[in-house]
Amino acid sequence: MENILGEGWQVTPAGGATGEAYLAQYGDEKLFLKRNSSPFLAVLSAEGIVPKLLWTKRLENGDVITAQKWLPGRELKSHEMKQPRVAQMLYKIHRSSELLRMLNRLGKKPLSPDVIYLDLMQKFENHHRTDVEVIRALSYLAANKNDLEHVQKVVCHCDVNHNNWMFSEEGNLYLIDWDGAVVADPALDIGMLLYWYLPKEEWGDWLTHYGLTNTEGLRQRMYWYVLAQTLLSIYWYDHKGLNGEVEFWKKDLENLNHYRLIDTD
Fold first, then answer.
1. Is residue 159 annotated as a catalytic residue, yes or no?
2. Where are the alpha helices (DSSP H) in the chain?
3. Looking at the domain 2-70, which fold is it?
4. Which entry of 119, 147, 159, 265 is annotated as an active-site residue?
5. How many CA atoms lie within 13 A of 151 on its CB side?
């Protein structure tokens, strides 16, 4: 990586799930480098959703290195996720025709409930097949996947955890780490954010800032996608052998199943 930048640059790993992100520093100048980032990054930068993309270089081995401006700032805290500007940023992302056009060009197919359910069934064919909560959740997904309201599919981030929201010292809000982006029902992102960070009685206000009304149809869609995402987390951490995380998400799944029973009483 140092060969790309020239002498004097110090490059260190910047963490992340892929292990392909780096911090490069030369004196007071800092860059965020990433190997084989999606071409989607250029559009995200142009839309002001991620820090500015400075340059892209292709290596002889075919790898592509991107450099973004390193901005001083911090991750959002859990309680800050209820802020109106978070809702407004998510609205901007979901309504961006440029982001949707780019993902379509990259071959991303819209995720329907049928596609998500079939994928989960395949994943769980040999995982937790006898787990009561997993069986209950899969049964609910199957029984309700055809009853969800049909809405226009948009670009969804798929991991709106507060750790992926960055507030710069300049006062700008960014949503980073777009490796898992999909084209899907916006309820996929909205549901995860509301279930994780806001009490139910505050959903209506947050949704107003986003531009939606807290309807029964929206709540059904959010619940369906949150349940599916929780199952996916159980599978993913089980595949990685992270038993502590598996147990955490299984407990969350149990709470979601129980929540449904209470909510329908």
1. yes
2. 2-5, 40-46, 84-94, 97-105, 113-123, 132-144, 187-197, 203-210, 216-240, 243-263
3. Phosphorylase Kinase; domain 1 (3.30.200)
4. 159
5. 19
> Are 250 and 234 a contacting pair, CB within 8 Å?
yes
Name the amino acid, one letter, at 227.
L
Rounded Cα–Cα distance for residues 91 and 186 (Å): 9
CATH of 75-263, one of 3.40.50.1000, 3.40.50.300, 3.90.1200.10, 3.30.420.40: 3.90.1200.10
* Spatial separation of the C-alpha atoms in residues 105 and 83, rounded to whole Å: 33
Give the C-alpha separation, 252 to 235, whole Å: 13
User: Residues spanned by CATH 3.90.1200.10 within the chain?
Assistant: 75-263
Nearest to 145 by CA among 104, 176, 114: 114
Instruction: Please tell me the predicted confidence (pLDDT) of residue 265.
Output: 39
Which amino acid is residue 2, in one-letter code?
Answer: E
> What are the C-alpha distances in Å from 189 to residues 128, 169, 240?
26, 26, 24
Start-end of CATH 3.30.200.20 domains in the chain: 2-70
Q: How far apart are CA 99 and CA 105, in angstroms?
A: 10
How does DSSP assign 115-127, residue by residue? Answer: HHHHHHHHHTTSS
What digits encode the pLDDT tens for the residues 89-127? 999 999 999 999 999 999 999 999 999 999 999 999 877
Give the residues across from 58 on adjacent strands: 64
- The bridge status of strand 53-58 relative to strand 154-156 is unpaired
In the chain, at which residue ranges do the beta strands (DSSP E only) sit? Answer: 10-13, 21-26, 29-35, 53-58, 64-69, 73-75, 154-156, 165-168, 173-175, 182-184
Tell me: the pLDDT tens digits for 170-186? 999 999 989 899 999 99
- Reference 36, options 164, 179, 159, 180; nearest CA is 179
